[in-house]
């Protein structure tokens, strides 16, 4: 049965690609196969996401941005907890799970949202996330298709990297992924300023962005440009006029 699903998915993916190794059809096939409104593939390495691999529409792009900015949501949980995360009614959930994420996700147009980890053996590459514009659970058929689709997506991503030198990513993978280098550079600078880990610095950046109703990218840009410097715990970050960090 799984072999039949895989064959059907691979056939549809080959038809969509039509000999072209572009990444966008991969996301489109994810949504088509799972019969959801939209989908996105979010890469994560060592618990930190370099950004979006691809999305199908403006809503899925917004959902990925919220996950990246806030560091929470079903797609983050799917990666971190190494399991499928399902929320069939985001506007009226049985229990509140993502206090910062839920309201803007609903405002963006998501009513149900689902995250499937992308795995190759024990290696986690990220999350295949889907959303629907109306509440509802995935059927058993949709769930089974999504599990196979997440595996196919993970292997397709690795295949795109197959010809790259060790430790690098192929040009098309780099171009397809929003690497958000400024965010990681800013996290490194805040880590040095506060003598904390990069992971803790990323949390501080996200907290600052959320508390000031700004995007993570905007806060990171100010840190890298030395317009913003973070102080030690108990003191707020402050705007600066320049100088070394």
Polypeptide structure, described:
The protein has 245 residues and is of the alpha+beta class. The chain is built from ten helices and seven strands. It has helices at 2-17, 24-34, 58-70, 74-80, 102-108, 140-160, 171-176, 181-194, 198-211, 216-224, and strands at 38-45, 48-55, 85-87, 112-120, 123-132, 228-229, 238-239. The strands form two sheets. It has a five-stranded antiparallel beta sheet with strand order 2-1-5-4-3, with helices on both faces. The protein has a two-stranded antiparallel ribbon with strand order 6-7. Strand 6 (228-229) and strand 7 form a beta hairpin. The chain starts with a helix and ends in a 6-residue tail after the last strand.
Q: Briefly, what is this?
A:
This protein has helices at about 1-15, 25-35, 60-70, 75-80, 100-110, 140-160, 170-175, 180-195, 200-210, 215-225, and strands at about 40-45, 50-55, 85, 110-120, 125-130, 230, 240.
Which structural category do the helix and sheet elements fall into? alpha+beta
**Main sheet characteristics:** 5 strands, antiparallel
Order of helices and strands: HHEEHHEHEEHHHHHEE
- Could you name the CATH class of the largest domain? Alpha Beta
